[in-house]
Amino acid sequence: FKTKADFIENYDQPLMNLPYVVDREQRRILCQSTACLAHIGRSIGMFGSNDIESSKCEELLCEIYDLRHPFIAFAYNSGGSADEAKEAFGKIAGILKKLEAYLKIEAKNNGGQKVCHLVGGKFSAPDFHLFELLDQNSAAAKKLEISDDLLGEYPHLKAFKEGFEKLDENQFYLSSWLHEGLPFNNCVAKVASALDVGLYKRGQAAEWRGKGEITMNGS
């Protein structure tokens, strides 16, 4: 992010923010989580097979981002107290209920089978965002002693998370430093700023420094 000024000037991107995607082929930079996920999904064929499915992907990305907000607000804009943590996870519960209801309908439409994909029975951008947040919120809830089983009351969400992380296609990522070697949050966050989902302390070793850039190609 230290190159922010250069990106703004060289790519004419006044909306520069984290996260961002550099599309060198089209020579442009895209910012904001939902826009980045949608762009990558479209670029690699993971944004639905038709207009209806694409719209469903967009809808889900927005809903899943709502799941992200309470945890991020607690991590960066709170005093880090136990009461504030409980309040944040109380807000998360309301959004989990909506996503649970969505997956219940998808499971019914799938003959009662467990659902590992949110749209069209195959990989799409919302799958990855939902798994990320279920994974992170579950770990944080346990660390903060909010709940040892955050998804215990949401069987379809739990089945999605467990099924998605068992898919062969995801094993390389889940066993790599991308999943195991990066903290959830920035070092100034009140939670999950260190690898153990705890607090990063100034002067502490940070093996993850310099590992935040991912390059993709079309081959």
Automatic annotation (TrEMBL):
Top EC class of this enzyme: transferase
Reaction equations catalysed: RX + glutathione = an S-substituted glutathione + a halide anion + H(+)
Domain spans labelled GST C-terminal: 50-184
Key words, A-Z: Transferase
Gene3D superfamilies: 1.20.1050.130
UniProt EC number: 2.5.1.18
Cited InterPro entries: Glutathione-S-Trfase_C-like, Glutathione-S-Trfase_C_sf, GST_C, GST_superfamily
GO molecular function: glutathione transferase activity
Its job: Conjugation of reduced glutathione to a wide number of exogenous and endogenous hydrophobic electrophiles.
Annotated family: Belongs to the GST superfamily. Mu family.
Stated name of the protein: glutathione transferase
Originating species: Helicotheca tamesis
Biological classification of the source: Eukaryota, Sar, Stramenopiles, Ochrophyta, Bacillariophyta
